[in-house]
Amino acid sequence: MKNIAKYLHIALLAYFLVFLMFFIFFDSLGAMFGMDPITATSMVKVFLTGVIVFLASWGASAIHASSQTDKIKKMEQEMNGVKAKLYDLEHPKSTPPTAAKPIPQKNQEDTSGTIRPRQNFTDQ
Question: What SS3 state is found at 33?
Answer without folding.
Answer: helix
